[in-house]
Amino acid sequence: MRLRVLASTTVAGLAVALAGCGAREKPAEEHAADAPPPPVPVTVAAIERRPVERTIEAVGSLRGWEQVTVGSKRSGRILKVFHDMGDRVRPDEPLVQIDPVDAKLAYNVAESKYLAELVKLGVTSEMAEDFIRRYGITETLVTGPQTEEVIEKVPAVVQYRVAMEKAVQNLARQRKLSQKGAGTAQELEDQESDYRSSIAAYDNAKSTARNVIAMALANRVARDQADQQLKDLTITAPRPQEPPPTKADAGQVAYAIALRSVSEGQMIREGDPVFSLVIENPLRLWANVPERYSDRIKVGQPVRISVASHPGKSFEGKVSRINPTVDADSRTFQVEATAPNEEGLLRPGGFAKAVVVTEAEAEATVVPIEAIVQYAGVTKLFVLDGDHVRSVDGLALGKEGSGWVEVSSEKMPTSGSVIVTGHSKLADGSQVVVREPEKEAEPALQAEAAKGGAKK
Fold first, then answer.
1. Nearest CA to 277 among 73, 81, 98, 91?
2. Burial (0-12, 13-18, 19+ Cβ within 10 Å), 113
3. Is the separation of the CB atoms in 191 and 171 below 8 Å?
4. Those residues with Cβ within 8 angstroms of residue 151's Cβ, 6 or more apart along the chain or in another chain
5. Residue 384: beta bridge partners?
């Protein structure tokens, strides 16, 4: 019984002692829980402002500066084809010759009729051409005073003018005789009738001469038409009215033949295509740009063009035209850029990528790429604020360079430092301690370590 009581007393005392010990240790645990967490060691880098290039990327197709399908103005049989696909030709250079036999005969007929009228007028072709150069083919050439001089020299007019002058003399002589009573009234009337007839014959000769002049002009026009038809049988490369930007004169333009549509001996009709030509220097790039960039694209901005056939090579161009309308289906607008092609490396019709430089040196805030934290669709970074950090979220990333990236946000400062390492332990307001970044091992040590690893 005594042993049982003693044991109970001993157990009770031990419990009290343990309880006392626990009561003394509890305040220390609570004090440890209330203490702030230790600072997080981090490394930092400076926020920088540097000029960056603002660009807009687009894709499109290359087109010739001018693309033209040359057709025939006349019908006939192809006598000769001077060029083929891939040849380069200059303006006015012959492409196709149509058989000219019929046209030459038509020209000779018109020329003979023209010369026949000149013979009636008693003038040479040189004199006639001089009149036409001076006065042109107008009514003045038929009725003007300069024409009267020519008409007065026409043989038929001269003949009737002499007859009229003779009738004037005879009438004057008969009147004097009648006044003296030596002539009869019938004789005076006959002389007056002859006089009026001679005047009418003279005026009719002059009118006939004017009609001959008009016929000569009509035959000359017919001859010129026949001559033009004869020239049209030689189909030539067109001459641009305005040279492209890379050429000072239209005669320096070179056309590349993209397609030949005729062969020797073939019969063609008016309007049938014979060749397809393209000016390949410079080229036009037609690219579609999203509507949201419409306020940033301007005429004259530089454009860098790249094609798959020349990887790594960039072709410089400039924005030359901007379509004022937006396509309702794609919500894009068309931009045209002029691309010089002196080396002929770009091909009309090819696919091309374009980078339009909207700003060459725009000021931007940049940070090291390691400072960016992306998690669950959120992009942010931490800015050093004394011995604490401040979270900057809602970041928009822009231009990237070698080890840096452009950032923009309403909360983003333009100077200071950003956290580069230690992000995983940070939150907004965390206390940090800045440590120096670990230096890379010396090259000799790295080589030694690599050598030792190789021996193993």
1. 91
2. middle
3. yes
4. 157, 206, 209, 210, 213
5. 389
| Whole-number Å distance between alpha carbons of 386 and 258 | 70
Report the alpha-carbon distance of residue 335 to residue 298 in Å, rounded. 9
Is 43-48+363-434 in CATH node 3.40.50.620? no
| CA distances from residue 49 to 136, 366, 401 in whole angstroms, order as listed | 74, 6, 13
Q: Which of 260, 288, 257, 287 is nearest to 272 (CA)?
A: 260
Do residues 243 and 253 make contact, with C-beta atoms less than 8 angstroms apart?
Answer: yes
Identical fold between 43-48+363-434 and 66-99+234-275: no
Model pLDDT, residue 11: 40
φ and ψ at 421, to 5 degrees?
-130, 155
What is the CATH architecture assignment of 66-99+234-275?
Beta Barrel (2.40)
Global model pTM greater than 0.85? no
Q: d(Cα 284, Cα 298) in Å, to the nearest integer?
A: 16
Sole residue written with tokens 């002058």: 165
Q: Which fold has domain 58-64+280-362?
A: Elongation Factor Tu (Ef-tu); domain 3 (2.40.30)
Contacts of 442 (CB under 8 A, 6+ apart): none
Sign of CA dihedral 290, 294, 296, 300: positive
Cα distances from 210 to residues 138, 196, 213, 379, in angstroms, run: 13, 21, 5, 95
Cα 284 to Cα 64, 87, 354: the distances in Å are 6, 21, 12
> What gap in Å lies between CA 142 and CA 127, rounded to an integer?
15
Mean pLDDT by 10 residues, the chain (456 residues): 36 43 50 70 90 91 94 95 95 95 94 89 82 76 73 84 89 84 82 89 86 87 93 94 84 92 95 95 94 93 94 94 94 95 92 93 88 88 90 88 88 90 87 77 45 45
Domain boundaries, the chain: 43-48+363-434, 58-64+280-362, 66-99+234-275, 102-223
Under 8 Å between Cβ of 292 and 344: no
pLDDT value, residue 18: 42
The string of DSSP codes covering 294-324 is: TTT--TT-EEEEE-TTSTT--EEEEEEEE-S
